Amino acid sequence: MSLKLKAVTEPADPNPIGSAVKRETVDLGNGSDIVYIRRFLPSNQAWTWFHYLDKEIPWTRPTLRVFGRSCVQPRDTCYVASPGLPDLIYSGYQPPAYSWDDFPPLKEILDAVHKALPGSSFNSLLLNRYKGGNDYVGWHSDDEKLYGLTPEIASVSFGCEREFFLKKRPKGRKHVEEPASKRLKMSDHAAQHSFTLKHGSLLVMRGNTQRDWIHSVPKRAKVEAARINLTFRHVL
Ligand SMILES: O=C(O)CCC(=O)C(=O)O
Ligand SMILES: [Mn+2]
Known about the structure:
The chain is of the alpha+beta class. It has one domain (24-233): Jelly Rolls. The chain has helices spanning 43-56, 104-116, 209-212; strands at 24-29, 32-37, 63-66, 69-72, 76-81, 97-98, 124-130, 137-140, 153-159, 162-168, 192-197, 202-207, 213-217, 227-233. The chain has an eight-stranded mixed β-sheet. Strand 1 (24-29) and strand 2 (32-37) form a beta hairpin. The longest helix has 14 residues, at 43-56. The relative contact order is 0.24. The model is unreliable at 1-11 and 181-189 (pLDDT under 50). Bound molecules: 2-oxoglutaric acid and manganese (II) ion.
């Protein structure tokens, strides 16, 4: 018996990361919206990257200047940027810019994010590591001039899930990161949104979100495990 084999051309990657996964869009109004992809990365791949980042990134915990006071940033951080971009400075701190070539897995994650968001071209990355529930990021928006007026910011989460809150920016005050004690008031409910940022998820803030909204990842007393978050940005 002779078997006839038919040549079938398989696509190189039949199921690229982030393809064919459910995405939710939340319209915040006035040209702001959020895209959330819960299963952006396969869980095993995301754990491999979590362990790599935890071990290999040169994490630091800088001292910031907030409202005239010095305080240690309540999470670890690192910054990666393409060559030739203007320096990032926030709360009086200028993080040294590492190169993408220093950490090859970051380029793979960046590729996956670009594929999921057609038209995007991120050239910088702020990394955060929350060692446990005491680490947090206070209310702020990423409205630095170097990102332009309507920046797209893509945030990939690894490890322990944490809550991410958005609320309308209070009028008449420039927003720098605030202490954890500034909690949401229940009366503000209509103007708030929350997402549980799962291991391997992608959340994207778009349009006027940095102008009109502020966001935070509050402390969580019961959380013990670490979370790593990557926020990809485009510096103009
Ligand atoms: O950890 C997060 O999900 C948010 C981090 C963040 O807002 C920032 O780095 O600007
Ligand atoms: Mn932010």
